Amino acid sequence: MSLIIVESPTKARTFNRIFQGKDFFVFATMGHFRDLPKEKLAIDYQNNFKPEYQISSSKKKVVEKIIQLAKENKEIIIATDPDREGESIGYHVAFVLNKINENWPEINFKDNHLKRIVFHEITEKAINDALANPQKIRLDLVKAQISRRILDRIVGYELSPLLWNKIGKNWLSAGRVQTVALRLVVEREKEINNFEKEDYYQIYGFFDFDENLKTKLISKNEKNYEQKINLNLFAGNYQYIKTSINEQNLNLLKNNILNDEFFIENIEETITKRFPPPPFTTSLLQQEAFNRFGFSSKMTMNLAQSLYENGLITYHRTDSFNLSTYFVFKARDYIKEKYGEKYLPEKPRSYKTKSRLAQEAHEAIRPTNFNKNQKLEKMSSNHKKLYQLIFNRALATQMKEAEFKVLTIKIKSKKGYLFEGKKEKIIFDGFLKLYKEYEKNNQNFDFKVKTGDKVNLISLTEEKNTTNPPPRYTEALLIKTLEEKGIGRPSTYASIISLIQNKNYLEKEGRYFLPNPLGTAISDYLSLKFPKIFSLDFTALMEDDLDKIAQGEKIPVDVLNEFYLPFNNLLKSAKFDNEKIEIQEREIGICPECQGKLIIKTSKFGKFIACSNYPKCRYTKPILKTIANKKCPKCNGDIVIKYTKSKKKFFGCINYPKCNFSSWSLKEI
User: Fold this and answer.
1) Which residue blocks in 177-319 are alpha helix, DSSP H?
2) How far apart are alpha carbons 48 and 107 in whole angstroms?
3) Dihedral angle at the C-alpha atoms of 144, 148, 150, 153, nearest 10 degrees?
4) Range of 656's domain?
5) HEC per residue, 543-598
6) N or C: which end of the chain has fewer CB within 10 A?
7) Are residues 25 and 120 in the same domain?
């Protein structure tokens, strides 16, 4: 009998289904079981930053079971996930089985009989291929994971007490990556507030040869009205557009145009092709799931984890665009059979990965097969939505590009004014057939004029616009920016974004993130006192160094020293100054008890209204968001959003405690 170690019970069940009747016993560790203790720093600075790992009290029975099973089985196989976290869990299994010499930063094997299998999908073929080609635990990946753990522990456990002292709230936290993510949102809000909006106009003309064609005024005597303006922002350049047409010159310009003569300068017909986007990486999946369904990154990762562990998709923590040859040819067969040969490109299509991130999982996210799966039928509607998104995206990569016919017409006047109009229709839907975003338009849409023909202007319209500041961050845009800047890793985005929300450093207004006064104050203070540590470039450089550790190109202690020495000097300076962090709380009214100012304050449980004369006046009032068109079934009061101490959302009656109605779901109300 061979013992196979995995992380989760769902994964174990999928393995057991594959190995039914075979000589394998599968056991799940239930995630990490050996980690740094929560009650202390547990990093020995004097001994090469040696981490003091211990077995979690809740997992001692799990470890005892692993040791017992190892004695009972002739062969031990580590089958954890193929990234650094999975490698680390496998490493800790090897340690508790006494297969590892752990003398940080040196790690080596005592026993070479422990097998490690690496696979990117939980299917019979992939598992059997992995079993036929066993490896060792990849110690360089383990060193990279431990180094990240040490770095994050140092920042979290050294900086958080500094914030407690400077603000007086002992539940605050700072983090190496979370602070930079928060800073992106805070700096963007400042950029929006500092942006000077300007009104401008665009002019459109309608001509007698096609009364429905809306043409835009482009230029006069080859001088364009539209201007592109670049702003240098914290996270990079931002470009916005305005025109030189304003309130002062609008009417004069319109009168000049109305008293002019026009002719067709040019008609151009082009065929444009639209190619399918690349298959999903972790960050692209998180962005698309947010944009299409409003799924948070945490929700997307939980759904994807379930799909992966049930054998429906490949591993979902990846930054690679690569698709296996096996999948590509299966996809081509499926396309030919379902849609016909005209939807099949001449050659298989591949995509080049541009990401700077580490290539630990070597394939993009894709379905494991094209057959209807009974397992999926039993899963939730959200699982099905995400699976279909992954299925369509992966399949689309191997479909033919879509083709559009574009007609561009340019109309010029004797005074030199140039109008331009376009018509577009799809002539071959290609990969868009999967998405049904376009319908074929078989109507003749050619213009009934030719170059040189005189045309008459029927009417002019203007549209008033305002220059737009850079957009606030949505979850998708924040993830995109983090990835572009090399901040964190795709597998960590969900936890980073959840953490800064749970700490009430920012909140969501619709789909957009807004920093609250607490988050702004913390970001401003840390970026002022630790300008290099919390810069985008330095944080990205640290990620690159961790990647180099994973590739065996850098020594962990060197990387840790390069970070810690400047960090510690800045920390000492900040600890011994008398500066306090001032939070600019928003005033919203007058206290009904003492006539003091009412302000919005933030606790670890969220925002609330309090009197500014605290502790003399202890008046407080919760901030409750009312759900529209919902009434309490007991007393007909308003239904409001509430949270448990563990931050779980529920719905209750505004008249509590007189009315004790509550529900976890709006559907029940």
Assistant:
1) 178-194, 250-258, 282-293, 297-309
2) 13
3) -160
4) 624-669
5) HHHHHHHHCCCCCHHHHHHHHHHHHHHHHHHHHCCCCCCCCCCCEEEECCCCCCEE
6) N
7) yes
Closest CA to 652 of 153, 90, 644, 174: 644
Residue 409, domain CATH: 2.70.20.10
| 546/498 same-domain check | yes
CB 215, CB 420: distance < 8 Å: yes
Whether the CB-CB separation of 238 and 502 falls below 8 Å is answered with no
Domain C-terminal end among 421, 449, 466? 466
Residues with Cβ < 8 Å from 451, sequence gap 6 or more? Answer: 264, 265, 266, 267
pLDDT band at 360 (very low <50, low <70, confident <90, very high): very low
- 307, 313 contact by CB (below 8 A): yes
Q: Are residues 52 and 124 in the same domain?
A: yes
Helices 282-293 & 490-502 angle (0-180, nearest 10): 50
Give per-residue pLDDT as tens, 412-449.
Answer: 999 999 999 999 999 999 999 998 766 655 556 788 89
CB 1 within 8 A of CB 25: yes
Q: Are residues 564 and 635 in the same domain?
A: no
Q: Which two tokens stand for residue 497?
A: 């974004």
Q: Give the up-direction half-sphere exposure of residue 554: CA atoms within 13 A in the CB hemisphere.
A: 19
541, 507: one domain: yes
Is residue 490 over pLDDT 90?
A: no
Element (H, E) at 607: strand 606-611
- The single residue listed with the structure tokens 């995630």 is 31
Q: Which of 217, 214, 225 is nearest to 413 (CA)?
A: 217
Task: Check pLDDT > 90 for residue 209.
Answer: yes
Using CA atoms, how far apart are residues 654 and 662, in angstroms rounded to an integer?
10
417 in catalytic set: no
Task: Choose, from 225, 315, 339, 505, the residue flagged as catalytic.
Answer: 315
Q: Shortest CA distance to 501 belongs to which of 470, 531, 474?
A: 474
Enter the tokens of residue 439: 């319908």
Distance of alpha carbon 206 from alpha carbon 130, whole angstroms? 66
Contacts of 589 (CB under 8 A, 6+ apart): 597, 598
pLDDT of residue 101: 93
